């Protein structure tokens, strides 16, 4: 189903930009006047995506144009790993990312323990 293009409220756009540390989700570029940040729909409106916070990321104008209506995975083919893009986007250090990986592994192990006990 196609979603109607509706205006995204100022509070939503500033929340997305703040959450992204004013960086492009796809290339990690910081905001600048030559290549300003825009809001990009992860699932495009034409594919039924919404204007909700969880479907929006900050993207520089160049990347937003490149993504168009493509699925998000297409933006990471032959580029930086998706996980690295998320790390930069969230402003996490490589150490923090390593901690998250360990936590994920522990959660998986706990799941296994629960399964066998
Ligand atoms: Zn970009």
Q: Main sheet, how many strands, which sense, barrel? A: 2 strands, antiparallel
* Distance linking N and C termini: 45 Å
Helix-strand string: HEEHHH
Q: Number of helix segments?
A: 4
CATH architecture: Orthogonal Bundle
Task: Write a short abstract of this structure.
By secondary structure, the chain is mainly alpha-helical.
Provide key terms for this protein:
117 residues; mainly alpha; DNA Binding (I), subunit A; two-stranded antiparallel ribbon; 4 helices; 2 strands; 41% helix; 9% strand; binds zinc ion
Outline the fold blueprint:
Layout (H helix, E strand, L loop, with lengths): L9 H10 L17 E5 L14 E5 H7 L14 H8 L4 H23 L1
Antiparallel strand pairs: 1-2
The chain binds zinc ion.
Q: What does this 3D model show about the protein?
A:
The protein has four helices and two strands. It has 117 residues and is mainly alpha-helical. A two-stranded antiparallel ribbon has the order 1-2. The model has no long low-confidence stretch (mean pLDDT 84). Bound molecules: zinc ion. Zinc ion binds next to strand 2 and helix 2. The site of zinc ion (ZN) has 8 residues, from strand 2 and helix 2.
């Amino acid at each position: 189903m196609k979603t109607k293009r509706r205006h995204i409220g100022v509070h939503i756009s500033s929340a997305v930009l703040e959450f992204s540390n004013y960086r492009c989700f796809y290339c990690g570029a910081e905001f600048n006047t030559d290549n300003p940040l825009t809001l990009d729909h992860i699932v495009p409106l034409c594919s039924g995506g919404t204007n909700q916070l969880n479907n929006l990321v900050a993207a520089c104008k160049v990347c937003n144009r490149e993504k168009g209506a493509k699925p998000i995975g297409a933006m990471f083919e032959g580029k930086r790993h998706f996980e690295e893009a998320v790390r930069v986007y969230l402003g996490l250090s490589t150490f923090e990312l390593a901690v998250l990986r360990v936590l994920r592994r522990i959660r998986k192990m706990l799941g296994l323990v629960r399964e066998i006990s």
